[in-house]
Design goal:
Number of strands: 4
Largest sheet: 2 strands, parallel
Strand content: 15-25%
Distance between the termini: 27 Å
Strand order of the largest sheet: 1-2
Helix content: under 10%
Length: 81
């Protein structure tokens, strides 16, 4: 998995003492950093969107930082309608 999208404020627990264990595990930091992977938190997917396979257009801002706002858009690979 290269892109993890969550409808939660964070992949980590609110109180983890700054460990960011889930972020570090996802990116395999510091052993073998996965630089092409992303985590998008606080996304919204309407209830009427079915589970399935989608193409993702992440649309990140061009900042030279380790965080960026994004506007994820999905396109169904196998439309049901």
């Amino acid at each position: 998995m290269e892109h993890l999208l969550l409808d939660l404020p964070s992949v980590d627990r609110e109180e983890d003492g700054g460990a960011l264990a889930a972020h570090r595990a996802f990116w395999q930091y510091p052993e073998a950093v996965r630089k092409k992977c992303t985590i998008s938190e606080m996304i919204f997917v309407p209830d009427h969107i079915p589970d399935g396979y989608y193409l993702l257009n992440l649309q990140t801002a061009c900042f030279d930082l380790d965080v960026s706002p994004s506007k994820p858009e999905i396109y169904a690979l196998y439309p049901t309608e």
